[in-house]
Amino acid sequence: MLTLEFSADGAVMVAGRLDAAQSPAAQQFLDGTSGKVTLECGRLEYVSSAGLGVLLKTQKRLMADGGGLCLTGVNAHIRDILEYSGFDSILEIRASP
């Protein structure tokens, strides 16, 4: 199960598993964003290669318009996945605010 919703400060809160089954819904949600998008990942449990594809597609689209995707609150497991896949050089990853 995956939930995506906007927080009061405009960040996108993501919780659950970003896997192949949830990727289409995640992509549809993120396609509605623009500019500099903060993805709060504190409750993200898992990301698959399909989920990485969603992040990459979103990053490319946002960057084409002068924006970008920033991940915050990334746990050690998700950070490892991002580092092993090289996504830490594609996406901005910051400590939780």
How much strand content do the residues show?
25-35%
Chain-averaged pLDDT: 95
Q: What is the SS-derived class?
A: alpha/beta
CATH H-tier superfamily: STAS domain
Main sheet: strand order: 1-2-3-4-5
Detail the poorly predicted runs. none
Helix content: 25-40%
Count of individual helical segments: 3
CATH architecture: 2-Layer Sandwich
* Outline type: globular
Describe the structure in your own words.
This protein is an alpha/beta fold. It is built from three helices and five strands, in the order E-E-H-E-H-E-H-E. The termini are far apart.
Topology:
Blueprint: E1 2-6, E2 12-18, H1 23-30, E3 36-47, H2 49-64, E4 68-72, H3 76-84, E5 92-94
Parallel strand pairs: 2-3, 3-4, 4-5
Antiparallel strand pairs: 1-2
Short description:
Helix content is 34%, strand content 33%. It has 97 residues and is of the alpha/beta class. The model has no long low-confidence stretch (mean pLDDT 95).
List keywords for this structure.
single chain; 97 residues; alpha/beta; Transcription Regulator spoIIAA; 5-stranded mixed beta sheet; 3 helices; 33% strand; globular
